[in-house]
Amino acid sequence: MTFAGLDDELARWADAGRVATFWWRDDDAVATTPALATLAALARAHDVPVALAAVPAALEDSLAATVVALPQCTVVQHGHAHRNHAPAGAKSCELGSGRPLATVAAELGAGRKRLHDAFGSRFLPLLVPPWNRIDATVVAALPSQGFVGLSTFGPRTAREAAPGLVRCNAHVDPIAWRDGRRFVGSDRALDEFVAHLARRRAGTVDANEPTGLLTHHLVFDAEAWRFVGELLARTRRHPAARWLAVAAALGA
Fold first, then answer.
1. What is the DSSP secondary-structure string of 24-57?
2. What SS3 string covers 154-193?
């Protein structure tokens, strides 16, 4: 699909008198890097909010400089150390059932405090589990650790993942992780983007959940960044499209 296909889908939203909402999540932030500077430049140029999922245990002081200089940025929490604790042969998971719940909860609470101390009001206690995987027992414990939101991948089946914990997921990841960690190309990424929009419009998924773009600045190449730039530019100037900050996305 080309960008014309996205324009066509947004025209259908406009014809129905509706506005398509989006949000942007970027994972694996630790420090200010040239790749993060590219992301920041795009967010600033198009005035689009971005939720920067930072890894608390690996946090470096330099990240604060990027956040302070980028009013479009909100920091959210990406697990604790982004460390795999799954048994051999199982899918990677930091927040699984293989360790005592008290240990996992204590790590997440300590990570939340570190990010709050580092970023203050620019931090929102929304948890992004590494590899988008989290055990149900850990989910249930999140509100007691001060979390208000959870973000994994794919259409949500319910607005709340646990009482008081809103789920707001990402839906489009333009990286082929099992095929050289390469950009999948604009056509395939747009296919996924438009497919979620169409399902929202038809009501086969939660129409109120904003369509989430997931980026990983550390692995993006020039072609991937060009796609993001074009996507932001086209949607920002379309009357039937609106990008939400993560706090507003949680309220959707």
1. EEEEEE-S--HHHHHHHHHHHHHT--EEEEE-GG
2. CCCCCCEEECCEEECCECECCEECCCCCEECCHHHHHHHH
Residue among 251, 240, 229, 239 at smallest CA distance from 48: 229
d(CA 54, CA 8): 35
Under 8 Å between Cβ of 51 and 26? yes
**Given the structure tokens 């980028």, which residue do they identify?**
70
| 252 residues of the chain, pLDDT tens digit each | 689 999 999 999 999 999 999 999 999 999 999 999 999 999 999 999 999 999 999 999 999 999 999 999 999 999 999 999 999 889 999 999 999 999 999 999 999 999 999 999 999 999 999 999 999 999 999 999 999 999 999 999 999 999 999 999 999 999 999 888 999 999 999 999 999 999 999 999 999 999 999 999 999 999 999 999 999 999 999 999 999 999 999 997
Whole-prediction pTM value? 0.96
CA 204 to chain centre: 22
**What structural domains and CATH numbers belong to the chain?**
3-250 (3.20.20.370)
CB atoms within 10 A of CB 98: 12
